[in-house]
Design brief:
The chain is of the alpha/beta class. Helix content is about 30%, strand content about 25%. It has helices at about 25-50, 135-145, 155-165, 190-205, 225-235, 255-270, and strands at about 1-5, 55-60, 75-80, 100, 125-130, 130, 150-155, 170-180, 185, 220-225, 240-245, 245-250. The protein is globular and about 50 Å long. The chain starts with a strand and ends in a 7-residue tail after the last helix.
């Protein structure tokens, strides 16, 4: 049994504001340990449940945040940027039996601690076939195309609610409760590690590849906080305006859809000016 852990940081234990996840800040340095604790707890739980292999894919910002030396020696970690499937890289090789979303968060324009979708700001909403889309929802559709179930999701309490929409059978662990985008009631790392490990142990029983789901076509719509960002997004082939500060594109598969999404967000981020956005 091989488990892929897609590890993001905004939904980690104790994380509540931008400096906690911004590489190079003192707060980020401290929160790296908390993030690593969550990921390691998930890995230990999956091993408890019978996993033979756990591959952790770093999925936050620079994708160089986890402390490798603090992970269980059985774990392997994929770190660094420029990966074909970004947050779920590794799922496409046919040997992954389940995926876990650890440290995830809610989507842009919704309630949730550090809520966003790919870009920390600039994007005010994302919709997939008309439904509000978080990173979890987008990545779950990619996983479905490879027949890989999402079996565990951790983050704030609203992230757990969001997960029930795209992975209703998955085990969920709330490591904190939403108060505002930059505030939460947090549990201690000892408590969250125990909770995550127990949930991952149960989630291992849900692992097992199924017949890939061909759910396309997929229409993705993005709304930005400035018109020039929408215009910048249309540089990507197939992306067209669909309203004020909005663009949309349609892909036959979610594999193509997530790669186009990555291209759009890369282009848009380069068009953001420091003071005026």
């Amino acid at each position: 049994m091989k488990i892929l852990v897609s590890a993001d940081m905004e939904g980690a234990t104790g994380v509540t504001w931008p400096a906690d996840v911004l590489p190079g800040t003192p707060q980020w340095e401290r929160c790296r340990s908390l993030f690593t604790s969550d990921v390691n707890a998930a890995a230990l739980g999956f091993y408890d449940g019978g996993a033979d292999e756990v591959l952790v894919n770093e999925a936050h910002w620079t994708m160089r945040n986890l402390l490798l030396e603090r992970l269980d020696d059985r774990v392997q970690m994929l770190t660094g940027k420029h990966k074909s499937l970004s947050m779920v890289e590794g799922i496409q090789h046919g040997d992954v039996d389940a995926v876990a979303f650890v440290g995830y968060h809610t989507g842009a324009g919704t309630e949730g601690v550090l809520a966003h979708t790919y870009l920390a700001n600039s994007i005010t909403g994302v919709w997939l076939n008309g439904a509000r889309a978080s990173e979890g929802l987008l990545n779950a559709h990619v996983a479905a195309e490879y027949g890989v179930p999402v079996v565990l999701v951790t983050g704030d309490d609203l992230t757990c609610v969001d997960a029930k929409g795209y992975a209703p059978d998955a085990r969920t662990v709330a490591v904190k409760d939403y108060v505002s985008r930059y505030a939460a009631v947090c549990r201690t790392p000892a408590r969250t590690a125990a909770d995550i490990r127990a949930a991952a142990g149960e989630a291992a029983a849900l692992a097992g590849r199924y017949t890939p789901v061909e759910g396309g076509p997929f229409t993705v719509e993005l709304e930005f906080d400035a018109e020039h960002l929408a215009a910048a997004a249309t540089v990507v082939p197939g992306v067209a305006p669909c309203g004020e500060r909005r663009v949309a594109y349609t892909s036959a598969t979610m594999y193509e859809g997530i790669r186009t999404f990555k291209a759009v967000t890369t282009i848009v981020s380069s068009a953001v000016e420091e003071q005026y956005g």
